[in-house]
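General statements about sequence and structure are easier to judge against a single worked case. When preparing material for the folding task, we compiled for one chain both its residues and its backbone structure tokens. The amino acid sequence and the backbone structure tokens for this protein are reproduced below:
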Amino acid sequence: KKSRSRDGSYESQHPEFYMHDRMIFLDGVMQSRRSGEIAYHEALVHPVMFAHPNPKRVAIVGGGEGATLREVLKHNTVEAAFMIEMDEQIVQVSREFLPEWSDCSDLVGSANWCLEDPRTEIHYSNALDWFIDRYANLNSDTEPLDVIIIGALDPQDDVDCCDTLYNSGTFLQSLRDSLSDDGVMVIPVGESPGIQDPPDHLGANRIRSKLINHLEKLGFKSMHIYHESHGRLIFPWNYLVVSKSNAVRRQWYRNEAEVTLAMRKRSVLTKSGESPFKHFDGAMMVSFQLPSKRMETVFCRQDPEPFECEDLRGFDPFLPNAPIESFEVMKSQVGENAGRGIFAMVDIPEDTYIALETAVESLHFLPSTFDLITQMEDDDFDDVRPLEVYMHGYGFQTTQHGGAEVAVDSSIITFVNHGCNGTYNVGIHSDINEANADTKAIPEVFNHRDPEARSLFNPAVDRNLRHAVAGGECSLRDIKAGEEILDNYLAFVGHERDWKSDVLHLRDQCAGGLGDVAEYEVQQ
């Protein structure tokens, strides 16, 4: 009552905090509610929009209440926003009874009603027909889309059209074909699983499982699942982002400051002078980068269990650890030009972690830092040369975050050398070494650092990326005091394209050639 009065109370000055809730149901399924729609729609739209470097053409499937469009129009890069909604009635009802959901009056250059924004085109059409008519033909001259946002029913909803929408190979193919080379798409995929749920394909989420399998087979290069818990939908809600280019991973894994800067550059100005983003910010985007623990747990209940579930989900508490004090630096015995090496000062049993307490503290050069150092080297900045040699000479490379990146052990463990001709005693079990390796193709056992070589949907990896990049290694056999610690550097090849050159480089070093660090020290 106070919120409707004019008694000067806090409630009367802020009636928006005390409004009655309103909900939208389609086919008996709640789609959104006033008390949580901003959080829901910002979580749906902005992660995928900022995952694209310059989204100009955006398509929205469904979204008749206008809130998805409202969020899309907050990006100043958008030149055309296509809303494909088959139910004109929901658009008109929402305009009358839920006007704030499609209110763009605060956006400079927009319209009071978002659907009248000059960048907007609304098509009252079946999405299957709209996309198939325009993009099912590979030779279509229709301009591609940068972002697709699915705002229709979730694959978890138990209605007939969901099965039709998400299991139509032709429709899903037309969605992929409609995207530009670096195009991105987001699909709400229902409630987050419970910690006691079975794998998706054996439970209520079978359509979600089928959808993910379809998308993998269509050739998407990157896939991310995240959840948002402030949309007031009883349970946290999952969203799935897929892209045609692996480079999108670089945009996806930007740090908080990088996302905040992108928001400053990207956001449309407001008449009120306030930020158009109410919930979404750099810190929230960082929280969306990891799948939930629930999703990882349910994923790992598959039979057989994916090997990453055992390798990456923490450290085995039953395995001993040889602390850093168990090792010393001396001249390597690998060869005349091998430089420094690490030697055991005590006996180390098989299956013992090697200085685990320091392995998790590796120095990580993320793609943006890696590129900066490389560019400075190319521009002949002499002062950066030692850092570049240190990074390449002691580090191991991967592309887990969408670009070249390097991790370097932060302790003396960084001096562990390659064991030529299969003489390594720590790392990955494999009979393949630099001497007998086929340079034409990287073996599967060494392909774990390349995100393009594994299953796209893998919450066990995506939730433990730092562990996947630098997670510590174990002894492969009993190591006696005085023995040199040797690894198989083939396990550190970051990408299939580097396989041949890295194998040949190791063969040269094993034959007495100089490594990067030794060559630099000779030059000095």
Remarks:
- The first strand starts at residue 23 and ends at 26.
- The CA atoms of residues 483 and 511 lie 21 Å apart.
- The mean pLDDT is 87.
- The radius of gyration is 27 Å.
